[in-house]
Amino acid sequence: MKKITIAIDGHSSCGKSTMAKALARDAGYIYVDSGAMYRAVTLFALRHGMFDETDRIDNVRLEEAMPGIQISFKLDPETRMPQTFLNGENVEEEIRTLKVSSHVSPIAALPFVRAALTRQQQEMGKEKGIVMDGRDIGTAVFPQAELKIFVTASTEVRARRRYDELKSKGQQVDLEEVRKNVEERDYIDTHRETAPLRQAEDAIVLDNSNMTIEEQHRWLLEQLQTRIEKD
Ligand code: CDP
Predict the structure, then answer these.
(1) Model pLDDT for residues 211-223, shown as the tens digit of each residue
(2) Is 40 near ligand 1, meaning CB less than 6 Å away?
């Protein structure tokens, strides 16, 4: 069957990666979490002291370092879950901490970071048969994607989901702090100049505030089926 490109964009913590992973698995497609790439660059910048006391970024040093930041994905042989590697090191857990979440959006707003990662993402999707989730996949990375989904849910629901996720991983977090981070990232992501988060004109909107994971998965498979039958 002909393979297409699927772009899933939307607000932070609305479960994009859960739905994108399940869709890729059932469709036999590759899954790429573009947010993990921005998170890996952020971790690199944090580790190399590129944020000052007021959290200003040393753009010059980061831009110089970009060619030496290699990000790749490998499947965990046991769980079959994709793991993010930064220069050969598995950083999957570390990039999901609140520390990285609270520094990622300013990093993702830097045009030279976006240019480098967008190029890599386009390379990964050259053969189609890919599900990529993020903020600008349907608008900037794959504007020609055959299926575009724009996901959202209420802030309360999203903060609660992220809080539960971090808790279940054993991280000490405060619900209010998580909610603030979700709101801050949404603000920066929608207001930046380069490739801001916005709904592509041809995207289908999904508000999953009141949907179970099963329900949204079925909905997505239906969208894929309908799209493929159209051709
Ligand atoms: O999963 P969650 O919604 O927490 O976010 P993520 O997909 O891991 O992305 C982390 C951050 O990276 C976002 O808040 C954006 O600032 C940035 N990002 C981006 O700018 N463009 C993308 N295509 C993906 C992520």
Answers:
(1) 999 999 999 999 9
(2) no
